[in-house]
Amino acid sequence: MTSTVRTYLARLLPQLIALTMILAAVSIVFPGFLSLEIQNGRLYGSLIDILNRGAPVVLLAIGMTVVIATKGIDLSVGAVMAICGATAASLITSGHSLAETLLVTIAVGILCGIWNGLLVAVLDIQPIIATLVLMVAGRGIAQLITEGAILTFNDPGLSFIGSGSFAGLPMPVVIWLAFGIIVALLVRQTALGMLIEAIGVNRQASTLSGVLTPVLLIAAYVLSGLCAAIAGVIAAADIKGADANNAGLWLELDAILAVVVGGTSLLGGRFSIAASVLGAIIIQAINTGILLSGFPPEFNLIIKAAIIVFILVLQSPRFHTAFAFLKMPRATAKPTEREAK
Amino acid sequence: MKFVKALASATILAACTFGTASAADLVVGFSQIGSESGWRAAETTLTKQQAEQRGIDLKFADAQQKQENQIKAIRSFIAQGVNAILLAPVVATGWDEVLQEAKDAEIPVILLDRTVDANKDLYMTAVTSDLVHEGSVAGKWLVDTVAGKPCNVVELQGTTGSSPAIDRKKGFEQALSGHDNLKIVRSQTGDFTRTKGKEVMESFLKAEDGGKNICALYAHNDDMAVGAIQAIKEAGLKPGKDILVVSIDAVPDIFQAMAAGEANATVELTPNMAGPAFDALAAYLKDGKEPPKWIQTESKLYTQADDPMKVYEEKKGLGY
């Protein structure tokens, strides 16, 4: 058991170091950063803000990890967020119950996933192209649903998903924690994870050895769509309105970045859900840190880019070889054979 | 096509022969950018309404955010021989050729809401708001409201580098200069969206002692203010009382917030750009009076005293 924990920690070590360094750096610039207090029966503080604001990207990253592990990519998640947010808002304002709204919204997300999955698995279109279709068209669909305006609602049940709290934690955090654990258990306590990795490493070989490749591929995109649907509901519930133009805009890129920062290769194969979640939290910690630090907004993107480049360099194989080389015992310190004689 | 052209020129000829054209038989082409925001949808609705009120036959063309579609639309308006063209340009450059064609056909072009980088002779006039002025109206309201008391202001900027963000910031700072009791303590971009407005306001509240150091919020648009209001409420403070909220645009939702006492003031960016444009056109066609090259729309200030619920009811049908 301890050895599994140790291998797990070793896998997550670069991400944990990066996160600790960022948190330390921000708390130097802004001293009150790490303080936590209980306000209105819930934890309150910048650390909680990071977990809370990071919710959409964490959820997208969970689905994206599985898709990327199959050597795919899902560019449509941001647009699917917008579609699902718009669906939820329009259903709740037209008088449907919360349960109906959530069920239909989740179904819409799954439908989007099936669409992507069919294009990739059955029609064999390259994932980047297949999902680009929905990325472009999806925002248009969302705008059709909201008729171009921000669709606002006041339903307390739906708003609770965005700004309520459970066991002292904001609802979005509870949702992504629970969802992340379920998905991680599902792929790691069964053979699913290994089969997904097999597809990513060599799709043809997996098919030939009896893996149900098309079914698993579609399932991966369905999971991604489901994650986007939940993220879309959270984003809409947070501002009590569906903003088809801006909801989830560019978040597909943040999700891909989270997966990469988490150390999963874009070439497919081995993946770690926990590492991707950490990656998403790292990105959000940078965002929140920049906001708290009080730098002028012109610097936001430059600072973010610099930190991310630094993290990626830390992870690169070349850097590891160089590091190992430096740690090698110095050859000159030992007497050579000839001198010994 | 030739037949249509001939017919169109015959109509113009007829119009010229039978005296000055009254508003009743005016045909005006309107090339709109597309549906990019609620405000633009409201502008389209109001332009159609204004045309109908004046009995103008409005030919509407939606460019779907593409300049080439706008150029095509203008060429087809010229071919149809309209009396005037309204243009809301999607970008600032690349208009010289098609504007010259309109000028050669002696069709006046009026720019709505944005201007172009072209020779000023190529269009009759531009109807736009003054972004710097909007910012200073908001700033002046805040200066008058705090009346000399010390006040820390936080600012939610628009998208970094966009002209509304730059100009609305400039105008606000101009209005505040010379009033040392008012100080902008934090300023960050909220990208003009509710989500970012809420997120950035949350960090402002954390950074300024749970919001106790903040006396007022200035947001470059209403959407960011609406997001920030939610953040203030969730932090256990009363927006509109503990923290004054002033923003720009006057979209319907901010009037709901004002009616609830959660927002204090907004400066209107009027979607009625067509009204002044049609007035200028009518004056020009009647006695050939050239309007000034720039017609500035009014930047009206709305506060809680202006019956926000009534304004909300008026505005919500406009397609915002």
UniProtKB/TrEMBL annotation, chain A:
Cellular compartments annotated: Cell membrane
Q: Which UniProt keywords apply?
A: Cell membrane, Membrane, Transmembrane, Transmembrane helix
Q: Which GO terms describe its molecular function?
A: transmembrane transporter activity
Pfam families, sorted: BPD_transp_2
What InterPro entries does the entry give?
A: ABC_transp_permease
Transmembrane is among the record's keywords = yes
Please list every transmembrane segment annotated in the UniProt record, as residue ranges.
Answer: 12-34, 54-70, 77-96, 102-121, 128-146, 166-187, 208-237, 249-267, 274-295, 301-326
- Gene Ontology terms, cellular component aspect? plasma membrane
Membrane topology, as annotated: Multi-pass membrane protein
Its recorded name reads Sugar ABC transporter permease
What is the organism of origin for this protein? Sinorhizobium saheli
Automatic annotation (TrEMBL), chain B:
* Keyword Signal attributed: yes
Record-linked InterPro entries: Peripla_BP_I, SBP_2_dom, YtfQ_transport
* Superkingdom to which the source organism belongs: Bacteria
Q: Which SUPFAM superfamilies match?
A: Periplasmic binding protein-like I (SSF53822)
Q: Which residues are the signal sequence here?
A: 1-23
Task: List the Gene Ontology MF annotations in alphabetical order.
Answer: carbohydrate binding
Its localization reads: Cell envelope
Keyword Cell division in the entry? The reply is no
Q: Which parts of the sequence belong to the Periplasmic binding protein domain?
A: 29-289
Q: Name one Pfam family in it.
A: Peripla_BP_4
- One GO cellular component, as annotated: cell envelope
Which UniProt keyword terms apply here? Answer: Signal
Q: Which family does it belong to?
A: Belongs to the bacterial solute-binding protein 2 family.
* Protein name, UniProt field: Sugar ABC transporter substrate-binding protein
What lineage, starting at the top, does this entry show? Bacteria, Pseudomonadati, Pseudomonadota, Alphaproteobacteria, Hyphomicrobiales
